[in-house]
Amino acid sequence: MPLSKERQPGREQSGGSSGGAILPQLASTAPVHCLPDIWDRLAAQHGDALAGVDPHHQPAEEYSFTRMAASITQFAAGLQSLGLSKGDKVSLFSENSGRWMVADQAVMKCGAADAVRGVSSTVEELQYILQHSESTGLVVQDAATLDKLLPTLRGSTEGLNGSSSGSNGGSSGSAALPIRFVVQLWGEPSAEAAAALGPALHTYGDVLARGAQQAFRPVEVSGQDLATLCYTSGTTGHPKGVMLTHANLLSQLANLPYFLSPQPGEQALSLLPPWHIYERTVTYFIYSCGTCTTYSNIRCFRDDLLKHPPDYFVCVPLVLDALHSKVEATLKKASGLRRALATNLLAAAAAYVQARRVVQGLDLKYALQPRPVGALLQAWLASVLLAPLHWLCQKLVAAKVRVAVGVRKFVISGGGSLSPFLDTFYESIGLQVLNGWGLTETSPVLACRRGVHNVRGSVGLPTPGTQLRVVDPDTLRDVPDGQQGLILARGPGVMAGYYRDEAATAKAFKAGDGWFDTGDLGWRAPAGVAGSAMAGCTVLTGRAKDTIVLSNGENVEPQPIEDALCASPLIKFAVLVGSGHRALGALIVANSEALEELAKERGAGALPAAEVEQMIGAEVRSRLAGRVRWEHVAAYEVLQDPFSVDDGTLTRTMKPRRDAIFKKYATEVARLESHLR
To answer: Tell me, what's the pLDDT at 23?
Structure first.
């Protein structure tokens, strides 16, 4: 059931099909047809203003907008001298840095597309992407990355030195790759790599030097041309290559100002890997606004939040959880009086913001049914009585907490659901968290919360130009607002398809007429509910493929229950099981840091395993106490080995990968299910 345009400004269809985008943050109003077009305009607009800071590489580097634009053009000219042409593909295997941005934009400026991945991926995965993407060039982060790919590249030695190389045919086997050049972004190549690759191997400086010796030859690139291949993290089999065009990426730059308006001279901190399309697109957007980006990493980000305090910080929910845990640990170390004062003031602030949501019509409890007059009066009275304590909390506690967290204005969270306790905590200390939603296949942002319309628990309103439908998963017919269904999306950010995979593309667009199956379940807040200011906001409830069907016929979405369990300071991850049984079970990964703190407080080296089991059990029962009977956990198993990216049980954005978890912990799952009815 479509929403009215008045209530949902993002639902109207995208205008035009030329692929050009008007970017309000750039001075010129002429359409931009390909992403690299923005850099010369940014250089003209912001000149020597600082665009990027890269403090953790050797050498550390800073980029003005002028230098960034010049480096991109010069690197592109160097790539042209190495034979890169329009329509080619280049594999780019590196973590985030200013040089990554230069290489990425230079490839696009040549009319080519890059296939991106991080250096922590397995050799097999990188090899598959290199071959499946039909790359004719390779750009790697450093000598270590290149050395682990040498066995793959040796099959191309003849092609690299000018002889004919075999066709890979999209196979991940040992067929020779048609690689023309290899570029290493940081440091000097190893002697082994230099000997194996010969004159086809170049450093970042080499390519810039080649570009300085010849002018860049302009290439006509349209919005419909392929800009990048983003390979999804496959839970089974090989990852799929998502084809994103320049128009896809530019639509995000054109429409994200609806949610966020960074200003020239402000600061942003970049933490997530660049192959994560959420980080990548928001970084493009931040640059396009004239805002300076500092590149960080998982080891240094806590220090960087203090050394380079950002106005805007892009992260995933697990990072917000880690920062919250740091605040809690700091409070525990305070003296008794200070700890009690801070804890009570934060609790009062939390109660205040929760009451204020009800008064303002932003509490999801009243999105589907009218807010009772009694609830409104009670919330109004609570907000009046708690306002002085909230004010006092901001002065005495929250201001110091915000300084300790490091973010000055907005946190932009994505890549996973945000637990309600985190939403309430950050609102209580006066830090806005804008939670967004999207997929690699949608460039990615489909919806996001706004600072002026921040409905906690939702993912906000659709991106302008994007349409969302909530349909019955079986019939694909629209369901009424307020009813859960499968979410379909259509708009300028939706991908062109999966590279060399017509079957997967057809399946993703099975609804027809350009509607993409997101695989997410959710509902849309209806209009016309008395006292509600939430109409049009989307609420996610889980993934269609993750639904647990109990033997009594109840369908359970695991995500909200897992989020509730992970709200416990003692639980790091929780994964539910129970399909075909009468009750749920949970695989639990304990929060080792919290348990270590408890042990230290008692003067012990470690807590006894039996006591940990009891504590976890108490947390499981208390966190789910208010839920319906079939959403209770009847049995749980505390895992001894934590989930990790290295063994595949976590995605690279730190989300549990269910298939891999069930495979690795098959014995524990079987033991757990034996206790379920």
So the answer is: 85
- Please check whether residue 16 lies inside any domain of the structure: no
What is the pLDDT confidence band of residue 29, given thresholds at 50, 70 and 90?
A: low
Task: Identify the pLDDT of residue 51.
Answer: 98
Full residue range of the structural domain in which residue 133 is found: 68-255+270-289
Q: Work out the mean pLDDT of the chain and round it to a whole number.
A: 90
Q: How far apart are CA 26 and CA 262, in angstroms?
A: 12
The residue whose two tokens read 């066995």 is 151
- Nearest in space to 237 (alpha carbons), one of 342, 324, 132: 132
CATH code where residue 248 lies: 3.40.50.980
pLDDT band (50, 70, 90) for residue 18: very low
For residue 549, give the 3-state DSSP assignment. strand
Q: Among all chains, which residue has been given the structure tokens 């080296």?
A: 605
Cα(229)–Cα(623) distance, rounded to whole angstroms?
A: 41
Strand bridging mode 113-117 / 226-231: parallel
Helices (H) and strands (E) in the chain, counts: 22, 26
Residue with tokens 């379920």: 676
CA distance linking residue 564 with residue 569, whole number of Å? 11
pLDDT tens column, 354-393: 999 999 999 999 999 999 999 999 999 999 999 999 999 9
Stretch 11-20: mean pLDDT: 39
* Spatial separation of the C-alpha atoms in residues 469 and 472, rounded to whole Å: 10
- 204 domain residue, yes or no: yes
Single-letter amino acid code for the residue at 31: P
Phi then psi dihedrals of residue 228, to 5 deg = -160, 155
Q: Which amino acid type is present at position 380?
A: W
Beta bridge partners of 577: 585
Task: Report the percentage of the chain scoring pLDDT > 90.
Answer: 72
Q: Is residue 302 situated within a structural domain?
A: no
Helix locations, 82-232, DSSP H? 98-109, 123-132, 143-153, 157-160, 191-197, 204-212
CATH number at residue 584: 3.30.300.30
- Chain Cα centroid distance, residue 166: 37
- The answer to whether residue 339 sits within a structural domain is no
Residue pLDDT, tens place only, 197-222: 999 999 999 999 999 999 999 999 99
Residue that wins the pLDDT comparison between 105 and 583: 105
Strands 267-270 and 312-315: parallel
pLDDT (mean) for 5-16: 34
Residues 6+ apart with CB under 8 A from 461: 8, 9, 10, 447, 448, 449, 450, 453, 536, 537, 538
Q: State how many domains the chain has.
A: 2
- Both structure tokens of 4: 């009215």
Contact 139, 164 (CB under 8 A): no
